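Supplementary Note 3. Input sequence used for the single-chain structure prediction.
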Amino acid sequence: MVFFAPALAQETEAAPASGGKRLKILEAERLELRNEAGEELVILVGNPVKMDRDGESIEAPRVIFNRTKKRLLLLGGVRYQDKQGQLIEAEELELFTDDESFEALEVKIESGEFFLSGPICQRAAGQILLQEGYLTPCQRCEQEVADYAFQAREVVLYPGDRIIARGVWVLLRGERTLYLPVLLLFLNERRPKLEFGQSESDGVFVSADLPYVSDFGIGFTLLRYFERRGWGFGFDHYGVGAAQERYQFLYLPPPAGLVLPDSDPRKDGIFKYRLSYKLEEPAWRLEGQVVRDDSPQAEPRFLQGAGGQPDYTTFLLEGATRQTPANPEPLYRLTLDGYIDHNPLALPNERTTPKRLPEAEVTFPRGLEGEFRLNGRVLLGYYEAPSNPLNRSARRLGPYIGAGRLWVEHRSSYRPATPPWPGFSFSVENTFIGRYYSTQNLDPQGNPTEFERLIRWDTRASLGQTLGAFSVNLSVSRNAVEGETPFQFDFERPQRTSRLEGSFRFNPDPIFSFTARASRDLERRIFDPPAEFALTSRPFPWLSLTASASRDIELGRWGLLRTSLGLAPTPFSLNLTYERQLELGLDRLLSLSAAYNPQPFNFSLRTGYRFWEVQEKETRPREQIPLIARYDPLELAASYNPPGNTTSLTHSRDLNNGQAIRTELNVFLQDPPDSFRLRQSLTHLYTPLPSLTNPNPLPTPGLLDGLAQLTLSLHTFVFTHSIGFSPGSESRFRLGYQYSADLWQADLLWNYREGLLRNPRLALRAAVREPDIFINEVSAEFHFPESENPLTLEDDTQAFLRFLRFNGELEIFPAPLRPEDPPGLSLQGLVGLERLTDNSGRFRVTLREFGPTFSFMGTEKTRLFYRIVWNAPESGGVNPKQLFLPNLEGTILRPRFEWIVDRCCWAFRASLDALKQELKFSFALGGDAAEFLFNQNNIVLPGGIKLPVPGGR
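The predicted structure, written as discrete structure tokens, is reproduced below.
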């Protein structure tokens, strides 16, 4: 077995007709090799045989693999689970590994929330065909008889999310009730739905999403009726075939009771549509999209985020060829991109990206190859876009114009594959982009002149020679932008540059090199920028010397000399940099950085001295020269870093006046899961001297800022402070406790100012964050009494509650999981009390979808949910109001009542909104129908329970 299993896996993987999938034998009791009628067979027997086929799980008591025909025959109790999660059980299954098709007998299929069964099953091109099939989403809902199911002459299960059945009997509690020629079921969130009710604004309304099947595709018919508005209609269509087609359309009548201006996009009704098409072939592709969305309201859910702007239809249609070995080039593309304005009375929506109406392109991506390379492309189109305000013709045409444009682009280069002699190198590169427009400027007499154009031409040539330690390189470049464009998106500033650059390098030894570089501007006929000379030496790994100087060849003046000395003998390091203005003979800067790192210790310092050039030429006595900052701050640092711990001390000081600037201590000790952190930072009272960059400095006030934090497993204690030493400054303190990240947090905060206690308060916060369960957060802040202070409110001398908030779901009684369990109760939503600042002692009440949810459990996984929801401030009704405590000012909270019956494979919801005077009824099918209805209303299930689907959770 061990000997032959690798051979079987290797054969399956290596065979081109098998799709390259690797078949692995996980468990088997016996393996046989046979040769029957010229066909090589591998026979496996087990209890059962278990195999893996690139993520697909296969189990069967007997497996016959035909290595000649690349077929896998599974016999007995077969279990086959593909990568899409579909589980197929059969008495016999034959898998054709060349095209992934199979044939099976006595089949049971679990796909998503649906269960299918039948005597004969076939799969081809990813579609599963089931003859005389039975399907239901209620198979594992613990129902003695399925609430509803379907018997069909033929069932087709498409990859992804669609089932089509033909010749269908609808079974209600096992009894044949209705015959349908064809039936469509979706496995994703798009499912048949029926909703009706009554609202204050629309009156009686009905909403239905009804599936259909046709020869040209499948989808939903969307019907809407509003008593006070009229009829609405639409569709959500999926095409069939190789193309990815989806066409969505919805029309809703105008809102009732509103007198809309002519410019309002809702006056003639609300349109929403997204029409998308995409077809990809090896040699070409075709795609298009048309979008309009007149209203941001979420109706229906599948059109949310459709994009666009009211009264505008945006469209993008594009077809292009692909580069393949059979069709290398040229490549073609045709694009139509723009929008249609349906309301000329409203302000225009002139987009910044150009409208292409249309644009055609021919591209040669490879072109000529070899030593000489040439490729290019040509674009021709008509564009509408914002105009270029710097262009005369564009200003005459207006701020938003349309014009034709021809784009011609080619790139060429030449590099000899073999140089004529050793050390020689040569290359030439050229790029040309020409844009030619249909617009024309006018001469002084008002007659049109030549057509406008904008040309960009970049050329560069390089020549080099290397002889031993010497190398010389010469390059010339020319960059030109000429003409003008009528469009803002095409704008480039006219320019013309020509430059000749030369460089020389002498590198006789790896430890020494000399480089010289100069450049000449051929347009202005000057040497610019200054020439550079650099000398580098590294005689030892721990010693480096560099020196560089610049010279203005045009004026014959030397510029800046920069030298650097680096020493790095372990564990020391030293870097000294010196700068001098050679022409004026003035020193500019001397900087020093040094470090000593005997592990685990680290010591370092850094400073600099800036020479005052003016002082060198002063004729006044030294005592009459004003003192200015000449030294950079001295930065001193020391640290001790044993494994897992750190202790560091840093100090900065102004060497100009001897004043300290800042001192900081950091300590971090840990013994996982415990740790201690201490940070104390003292900003000294400091008055800097004037400098060239800061001639009028302000004094820095003294401040002690710090933190001390102790973590003991899940418990964290922290103390922070910010103590000001200047007159009138305020000191702030915080003493906090935190449990397990952010599950529980308490903070005691207070301030001191001018010797008086200010704003003492206690903030509490508790949170429970468990994925897929629920999110809870309770927070409150309590204010302690303050001493009397004329700068604070009179009420601040008392103790009071600042705010109290609850957000999430709180389970008071557990949600029932069995019929004998008692009912469950939970509170959900957000409730908040916030104290007003007018010394009235009242609290503003905030409610967001807040209320209790009662849950009941019956037989056969039947659940009943009853929910009461309040919202405040009230945002609907005739007279919305805000609520305050303790006096509600005679306002009666008007809740929304909701009932949901969940039968596992179907759900019904009824809601009554007393605030909006709205009544709704909804019905949905599918294994998670109740959860689907809940999600539409942002309802969290009590206790974070999961509604069951076939197969359980």
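The first strand starts at residue 23 and ends at 27. The chain has four helices and 54 strands.
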